[in-house]
Design a protein that fits this description.
The chain is an alpha/beta fold. The protein has helices spanning 15-29, 44-47, 74-80; strands at 3-8, 33-38, 54-57. The mean pLDDT is 83.
């Protein structure tokens, strides 16, 4: 089967990670090897139970950007997060 890489690098709540966890478990049940990169490793066990996922730290950019207007598109959202 395939090795599939899933990443959670944007978003502050757990909604993104909850969806990613369901997807990871469904893909694993089909025999795929799952590698996951998370922005917050402390939530891994809650949303990826069982410990049989390869879990990596996603890159983080922690400086706060100030003085800019609210982002108008996805490119500006990425820019505010260091991408």
């Amino acid at each position: 089967m395939a090795r599939i890489f899933l990443a959670w690098e944007l978003g502050a709540g757990s909604g993104h990670l909850a969806s990613l966890g369901v997807l990871a478990q469904a893909l694993r049940a089909r025999g795929h090897e799952i590698v996951v990169a998370l922005k917050d490793l402390s939530r891994a066990e809650r949303f990826l139970p069982g410990g049989d996922f390869a879990v990596l730290q996603a890159p983080l950019w922690t400086p706060r950007v100030q003085g800019l207007n609210a982002p108008l598109n996805y490119s500006e959202i990425l820019g505010l997060h260091g991408y």
